[in-house]
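input
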Amino acid sequence: MLIMTTVIVTMSSIVQIVVKWKKKPLWSQIFCVAPECWQPDVRKTPVLFKQELQNEEAKEGKQVKLTCELSKPDTPVKWMKGDTVLCASEKYEFKQRGTVAELIIRDVKSVDAGEYTCSTGELKTTARVKVNGRQS
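output
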């Protein structure tokens, strides 16, 4: 039979729960109940951009690829042109493999020129796309 002692130490708004086992269990589950207003402060390692977006240039009718690299794999990102959130379509394709996120803009036109942003919610990186007219 396992016997445990729980000690709660309160320092201002910090609560620490220490569990001491008389005999080390093979496995255990510990449940804590907190008031609804309590918000845990779970500290995570922040996601950083290892490689930021670079400005790109393309001729009308071609495609442009914007690429950035994150410090954590499969981090959800959102792509924007200016203040408009982009959605996957025939025009825009999003790819994400591991730590690399890509936006592919197909069949670029002059209206596609502007600033594009990749955002993790906490951080963002922005690059400018320039579109050159077709040469005859």
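quick obs: Residues 1-13 have pLDDT under 50 and may be disordered.
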